[in-house]
Structures are given as structure tokens and as C-alpha cells.
Amino acid sequence: MTTTNKRGFAQEVWDFFCSLKLSIFLLIGLALVSIIGTVIQQGPQREYLATLSETKIRLYSALGFFDMYHSWWFILLLYLLTLNLICCSIKRLPRVWKVVSEPVLVMDDNFEKSLANVKDLKLKGSKEELKERMASFLRAEFAAPVITESNGEYHLFAQKSPWCRLGVYVVHLSIIVIFIGALIGSFAGYKAYTNIPEGGAVSQVQTQSGKMIPLGFEVRCEKFSVSYYDTGAPKEFKSVLTVLENGKPVPGFQSRPIIVNDPLTYKGITFYQSSFGQSDEGSLYHITVRDRKGGAPVKLNARQGERVALPGGAFLSVMEATMDVRPFMRGFDGPGAQVEFTPAGGNPQPFVILSDKYESFNAQHGGDLLITFDGMDQKFYTGLQVAHDPGVWVVWFGCFLMVLGICMAFFMSHKRVWARVTDSGVTLGGSASKNPAGFEICFDDLVEKIGKA
Amino acid sequence: MSSSMLFNVTMVIYMVSTCIFFAFLASRNKAVGLTGTYAALFGFLVQTAAIGLRWKESYDQGHGHAPLSNLFESVVFFSWTIVLIFLIIDFKYKYRAIGFFVIPFALFGMAWAQLGLDSGIEPLVPALQSNWLMYHVITCFLGYAAFAVACGISIMYLIRESMEKGGADVQAGGLLSMFPSIRILDDLNYKAIMIGFPLLSLGIITGAAWANYAWGTYWSWDPKETWSLIVWFVYAAFLHARITRGWVGRRAAILSVIGFAATIFCYLGVNLFLSGLHSYGK
Question: Which domain holds residue A400?
Fold first, then answer.
């Protein structure tokens, strides 16, 4: 009694994991819970947390909502889905495999009744002749037949693309392959980030969790540049990188430009253009000052925020500057600087100065002095995303399998034709795994051609 | 002649086509239905020319990129793909009544794009400067369009089913008599999703490939990515529901409508209400 109960329970568990209802429930469930992570900020910023109440924060943290897609219950749902599709496949695959590998070669009366397309044809000739005729006909018009003799009748069987029945299982397998690829990536790979100032080099990068990872080589940023369209929208962010091994540049990896959408890969580690900024070292600004009443122009250099003494007792500091003002000022181009000018004995005045191309613009300020901005030696740092993911090719292989499997499952049909040949004629039967209406046309076409042949 | 003018013409033709399809439902005259399809085809050709012209205009302005880069262009392209998928299904199965439930989606898209969106041609920002943009956008939107058609068909299914239950005599006439039977509507719904699902899968895969190429992560649970996966889950559930007893018909139709609602949220809602990587250049 207990043993049957046990078997009954095991059977129930097995049936539970094999059921399509569970698949539908899991798919809809995953769809619903996935919404949470798109509404609640993942890896939340301080500003975002400040908008939430204390209780909400405690509740969300307890439920793992701040890193929802890696929470135990979300991962559990994904594992359940995987288990479900493995069980479903194990249960159904043998049956389908049998249809593919051991086709029904003989169309008997019972089987004939189960077919949607059947046609009796009265044809002249002995059954040997008819058999040969039908065999060459099927070979020419459909597929090469297998011939079986049974009860004094000849049975011909021909089929097209039987393996497309496996499409569904290829898709199921592809999902498992993608998960394996993702697991390899999460255990053996990393995503990191690094800032390199122009002229500087790094030999280790920091992962999202804050761990430092040595690269095993050095990457130097030779130069970073940014260019803009006339509209002020950014056009290109470009870093020029050199890979160094033992302090020596690696041939083929010297001064390699990388831009967004065109990364650099060396030894399985890829560097992506991600962000940029002004280097801490600061820029050197070039300014020309000329007395309006005459006299030779004076050239000055200044660092950011530095108070520079001007002729006549005034002071100037550069707050911010750019080599291209187009994104900030419509109708102007070239270099520009936001400065604070303090006339002798007066209060500080903030204004903008541009290049000597805009003399009348620059003449609006500065009292007796005409101040122009000549440009700057600016130093950027480039922000690079660094990724090492040995699982990525497994993921692409999974994606390929998925597309292949979906095409097999959706767009191909396993078509089968049987012919029973007797002395009085031929009975043709046919069936297809998909698109019965389409197969009917194909079948009628075959029947018509036999009539003519 | 500018592309903007042609887009206006397209919008008017889709409006005319919608009216003709309504006249078809009312008159039950097959010739009227065919005229509706031809009007939609004509609108489609004009829109194709307009998109081509806009592409050329971008080259004239010196940017030179496929018109798939901002919200205006994507809405126009979405409406184009909806009509494309509709025409394929219409020419194959010839159930003209579907036009009245599908062309309005395209009309609405064109009207919104022309009246409410900024139609300026902008140069591509660095993130979009990639051939993956084309592969990704085309596959996604063809998928979305197939789901739009499936949604129109499912709405027809739900209307017809509830009226039949309410005791309406379908044979006696009225608007319903031009609807395909619910069995056929159910099948067409499935067929449209069979077109959409592989395309959505390809769209997600090309998006992942592009993200991996540009940022080094093929999946980062960005809201857009997550929503595309939600849509994929819903239609995967739909496909499995097809082979489960009790889930064919009404429930499948409801799932298809929900799936399209999720699709629209994935396409627009994510940009309007959530933040992420797909900003359409604002």
C-alpha cells in the first residue's frame, strides 16, 4: 500500500513538472513579476531611496526588489521553468522521435481512416508495373519512397522534412544553452569599469562589486577627443588606446582608435567607449588681454579657478571652458570660456569670452581691457567599460539554435504520403504535421499528376 | 515634393481605406472590400516612397542614415510594417473585414506622427551609429506589427463570440456577417503570432548582439529589455496555450490582446514612464 502511494506521489510530482499548465503559469508569472524591476529602480541611487518611505525600503529590501532579477525567488522561477521544459521534453520527445525514426511504412485500413487525405485511383497495369510507376513518380514529384510488400500488396511510403517535428525541442534546448552561457559568464567572466587620463595607463580594473581585477597587461590612453554636429549633438567620442606588455607596445594594438560601437578586444578582454570627463590634472587656458586704449596684447596662461592678475590691477579667473561652444551657444563656434572678472577695486563680474573671431562680442565686458579666449590645452580622461565573458559564444550558439528551432517548428511541415498498390489500382493517402489546408492543395496536385502520368 | 507631404497623403489614404472597410462591413459588397484593400496597398506604396524620400533627404542634409532613428521615424515605420503584414495576410486569406480592425492602427500611428511628433531629421548620436540599428529595428517592428494584426483579429474574435453568445443571428446580416467565423479568426490570430514571435525573438537577439558589441553586456535588465522579454513570455504562453485544452479560443484571444498591450508598453510606455537606454534621442 505504501509503495503504491509512494509511486503515486512520485508520479504526481512528475506529472506536475510535465504539465503544460505549469508552463503557462510560469511564463505568465515571470511576465508579471518582471514588471516589478522595471518600476522600482534596480541598484537604487540615494536620490531615489530618499523618495521612498522607511517601511517601503525595508519591505523592498526584504523581498529583494532592489536587485530583483538576481533575487532568489526570481532565479527559482527561472529554474522551475527550465525544469518544466526539460520534463516536458523528456516526456514527449521519445514519442516524436519514434514518428521520425520509425515511420509507419504500411497504410492499413485503420490507419487509412485516420488520414485526412485519401484518394482511390483506378489505374491499368499489373501491380508490379504500377509499383514501379508509382515509385518513379513519387521520387520525381515528392520524395524517394520506401517499398514494403505485405499481404500481396505493395506499400510505398515517402516523406519530406520529418526532422522539423524536432523543432520545438531544439527551441527548448536553445533556452537551456543560453542559460548555461549566462552561468558561464557570471562565474568565469566579469564586467568592470575604468577611467584612464590622457597619457595615463591602467593595469587593473574595478568590477561592479568593487573588486580590483588585474588585466595581465597595460592599457594606455594616448588621446581622447569628442566632436559635435552643427546642431550641438555629439557626433563621436573617440579614445586612442595602446596595449602594453611588460611596458612595450604590442604590435597591432598600438594607437588603436575606439569609438562607441567599435570596441577593442585583447586576450578576450574587451574595452568599450563609455564616458569621458575632464582630467583632474586640469586644463591650461590661454587668454589674450589688450588695452583698448592701445598697447601690445599680453598673452596669459591660467589654470581652472586660478586668479590671474591683469594689467591695470584687475583679476580674472576661468571657471569653465570648452574648445567648441556650439552645443551651448547657438550661432557661435570655436573655443569659449566662462570667466569671473574682478576690476580693480570693483566686484566680480561673471561673463563669457570667445575667440578673437567674435571681437564685438568680447568687447561687451572687461572695462578698459579687451579679453579674448585663445583656447586651451585640455586633458580628458576616458571612461571605458571592460568586459570579459567566456560564455558569450555559448549564448550566441543558443540564440542560433532558437532561431533555427523556431523556423523548423513554425514554417516547416512534416509531409507524408502512402501508396497502396494492388492489381486494381492505387490508393493514395497523405498527412502533414502543419498547415492542413496547404497540404490538401499539394496532395490534390499529386493525385492530378498521377492521373496524367 | 517633400517626404512630409507624402506622409500626409499616406495618412489621408489610410483614413479613406478605413472608411471603405467600414462601408464594406455595412454594405456586404465584396467589391467594396477589395477597394479597401487596394486603397491600403496604394497608401502603403505612397508611404514606401515617402520613407525612401526621407532617407534621401537625410543624405541631402549630409547626415545620411536610414529613417529609423527617432520617435517620429519609428512610429512611421511601425505603421508601415502594420500595413505590410496586413497586406500579406489579406492577399493570402482574403478576409477583408480584418482591414477595419487593423488599418486604424496604422492610421493612428501616422496621425500621431504627423500631428504630434517632431519630424526633424537629426544626425545620429554615437550610440546609434551602427548597422545593428537597422537589423534590430526592422525585426522588432515587423514583430510588433504582426502582433498588432493579431490583436485586431482577436478583437474581432471577442466581438463575434460575445454577440453569438448574446443570441445574435450571424447569418441574418448586420456588420457581423462579413466577419470570418470564430474558428477561422482563432486560426488567423495564431498565424499572425507565428509571424510575430520569430521576428520578436530575432529582434531581441539582434538587440542583445548590439548591446554586447557596443557595451559589452548582451543583457542588463534595462527596462526596455525586460519589457521585450515580458512580451516574449506572454506570446510564449500563448503558443503553449494553443496545445492545452481549454485555452484555445477566447482565452487565446485575450492573451493576444494583452500581448499587444504589453508590446505597446514596451515600445512607448517604457520611454514615456520609465528610464533606460532607448531614449529615441529625446
Answer: 165-181+391-411
* Residue B237 to residue A23, Cβ atoms within 8 A: yes
Domain boundary among B116, B138, B167: B116
Inter-chain CB proximity B234 and A37 less than 8 Å: no
Angstroms from A70 CA to nearest CA on chain B: 10
Q: What distance lies between CA A89 and its chain's CA centroid?
A: 27
Q: Chain B: residue nearest A395 by CA?
A: B218
Is the CB of A69 less than 8 angstroms away from the CB of B221? Answer: yes
User: Cell triple for residue A232?
Assistant: 550641438
Q: What is the pLDDT of residues A313-335, one digit of tens each?
A: 888 888 888 888 887 888 888 88
Q: Which of B126, B221, B237 sits opposite A237 (nearest CB)?
A: B126
Please indicate, yes or no, whether residues B111 and B50 belong to a single structural domain of this protein. yes
Using CB atoms within 10 A of its CB, is residue A12 exposed (0-12), middle (13-18) or buried (19+)?
A: exposed
Closest CA of chain B from A270, distance in Å:
7
Same domain, B64 and B164: no
* Claim to verify: residue B147 and residue B278 sit in the same structural domain: yes
Quick one: average pLDDT of A56-65? 90
Q: Find which of B125, B139, B254, B256 to mutate to test the A interface (most A CBs within 10 Å of its CB).
A: B125
Quick check: A272 and B218 CB within 8 A?
no
Question: Which range marks the domain in which residue B36 is found?
Answer: 1-116
At A195-248, the pLDDT tens digits run 898 888 899 998 888 889 899 999 999 988 888 887 778 888 899 999 999 889
Q: How far apart, in whole angstroms, are the C-alpha atoms of residue B253 and residue A25?
A: 17
> Does residue B225 surpass a pLDDT of 60?
yes
Q: Is B258 on the interface with A (CB under 8 A)?
A: no
- Does residue B57 sit in the same domain as residue B157? no
* Confidence band for B276, pLDDT divided at 50, 70 and 90: low
B74/B138 same-domain check: no
Minimum Cα–Cα distance from B204: chain A residue = A399
CA distance B131 to A342: 53
Record: contact B216-A229, CB cut-off 8 A: no
Q: Would the pLDDT of B280 be above 60?
A: no
CATH of the domain at B18: 1.20.120
Mutate to test the interface with B, among A38, A77, A274, A404 (most CBs of B within 10 A): A38
**Residue B244 touches chain A, beta carbons under 8 Å:** yes
Q: How many domains does chain B have?
A: 2
CA distance B230 to chain A (A): 5
**Chain B closest-CA separation from residue A403 CA (Å):** 7
Q: How many CB pairs under 8 A join A and B?
A: 107
pTM across the whole model: 0.83
Q: Is A386 found in the same domain as A261?
A: yes
User: Do both B147 and B281 map to the same domain?
Assistant: yes
Tell me how far apart the alpha carbons of residues A183 and A190 are, in angstroms, rounded to a whole number: 12
Question: What is the residue-wise DSSP string for B72-122?
Answer: HHHHHHHHHHHHHHHHHHHHHH--TTHHHHHHHHHHHHHHHHHHHS-----
C-alpha cell at B265: 508598453
Looking at A7-16, A92-101, A402-411, B107-116, which range is the least confident one?
A7-16
- DSSP per residue, A139-169: HHHT-PPEEEEETTEEEEEEEE-GGGGGHHH
Q: Are residues B168 and B249 in the same domain?
A: yes
* Residue B80, C-alpha cell as written in the block: 508601415
Over pLDDT 70: what percentage of chain B? 94
Q: What integer pLDDT is reported at residue A275 of this predicted model?
A: 85
Do B75 and B9 lie in one domain? The reply is yes
Kindly tell me if the per-residue pLDDT of B244 is higher than 80. no
Hey, what amino acid is at B8? N
| Joined grid coordinates for residue A89 | 521534453
Confirm or reject contact between B214 and chain A (CB < 8 A): yes
A38, A42, A236: residue with CB nearest B227: A38
